[in-house]
Amino acid sequence: MTGLTAELVVxxxxxxxxxxxxxxxxxxxxxxxxxxxxxxxxTALWLVDTDGALAPRRATADTATESRPRWSADSATLFxxxxxxxxxxxxxxxxxxADGTVTTLTGxxxxxxxxxxxxxPNLVALLAEDEPTEQDARRxxxxxxxxxxxxxxxxxxxxxxxxxxxxxxxxxxxxxxxVVELRQRPDGGPLAVLTRASADNDHGPRSGHxxxxxxxxxxxxxxxxxEADAQSLAWWPDEDGWHLGYLGLTPPGLQAGAAxxxxxxxKGVLRNRTAGLSMCPTELGQTDGAxxxxxxxxxxxxxxxxxxxxxxVLSQHPGRLDTLTATPAGDDIAVLTGxxxxxxxxxxxxxxxxxxxxxxxxxxxxxxxxxxxxPLAYRAADGLDLDGLLVxxxxxxASDGPFPLVTIAHGGPYDRYADRCQLFWFPSAQWLAxxxxxxxxxxxxxxxxxxxxxxxxxxxxxxxxxxTDILTGIDLLVAEGIADPDRLGIAGWSHGGFMSAxxxxxxxRFRAALVGAGVVDWGMLAATGENGQxxxxxxxxxxxxxxxxxxxxxxxxxxxxxRIRTPVLILxxxxxxxxxxxxxxYLHRALRHFDVEHELVIYPREGHSIRERHHQIDVLxxxxxxxxxxxxx
Length: 633
Prior knowledge:
The protein has 633 residues and is of the alpha+beta class.
């Protein structure tokens, strides 16, 4: 078998955004490279017949960033965004399937952000920022680039494109609010429009409102505020009229499990339809009848139907189901899913299953030896049921242990490890397993897949029980002879980076650590990160919460820097606005002050995720070399 290389990991292409035609016969998806080599990420639209009669084929031939495929109601036209004319500025295009003709439909100077073909075949709803004004042009000529916060902030506006005339109109019905999402009622009625006070990630998620908009008259009705971080709109009819559903965070906090909220539009009654469940909804799927709901269910996924009074489970699937798309009748669906040793591909079938794979986008991985992956179930110190994954070194079995063990904490913390292929550019299990390490992927409390209370329990208490949950799993693997207690490492990215930095300030058990884009000071992050309110909910306080010491100091790794003796590899993107670079610099200076062996690696032009090919390769090689150095001398 061929060995795994960093190039094999980052040079692949992955399917995204599957869109099933209303007639169920064809599907369009975006094929995107896993890494970027130039100034733009060149993506492509592909078409595939769902019956398997024809192999997948390119829908267009341009070098461009193509995205957001949407079908017309008659399945004859595919609308999509592309920057083929002006790289970096997307416009709406239409592909006529009968003759393969591609037509450019907009020339909006600010570009188009999103679109929705309406049931009226002559209308397409658009989301786009305002075009530059003469004043903007004059400022540009004068090189007046002064930024005044609160002035001229970008907003996505609702607009209507008339395909007969090419004219774009902007109904001024939402004031200065930022439009997030649109969903037309299946019978051709009004549009549900989700708005926020601004595009600011710190302020916006708490300020959502729902509206109804009549596309024929341009008039709108405000249905009032929605729960925090509302998204994934879906309509359905019921005996008491139309209902409108969305996913939102369960009150009162921003760190909480998501729920399906059901609004009876005429009565104005809002219900939480998933309260008390031990799984977490991840998206709603629109049909002409009852909507479909995808759930993160432990290590796996569940697909259900939201009936009038009940939630009916339709099928269960290993790993994850992502980006659900369904025919109007709801009798066929398409999703992205994979397996323990297969990366995600497009699968189709009835919602009751089974699902059939119709794309094969990473054949280069065929024949690559991967480590055996197995689910773990264990109990926390307080008796709470927990799960996770264990990946053994390639070609080895548990009886060959003990092995050097790297524990990789997941991000979020409202994320999870699912029983899917664990091979990515960031610290990932199969990459380290190929170098002879066993890898533990824990799902401590605070994550997704076990209901609201499980997720909400870490708010203001990060690094407490979620840390002991992880330790309990490590102790189990040591006791079972799988992990060598003298060769333990810990790693993570984002919130996982926080957990790694926290771990080495609490114990000297680990021989090496990797902190990727990690949080080291919650007060600093609440003040400077783009998700400040969310970070304040996790840390428990802010710097303006009065004279300290503050609660967030007690859960910030930087407070324990004097205790760190473990060698630490710090990786961070220079342009990260989620967890700004200052967090990494802060840890670096503290470790330098206390003379702790460490490396700080900064990736220019990169944000919270590393995108450029040579940087991703560096992350992979540096990660493996670091743990080889300290755990496999």
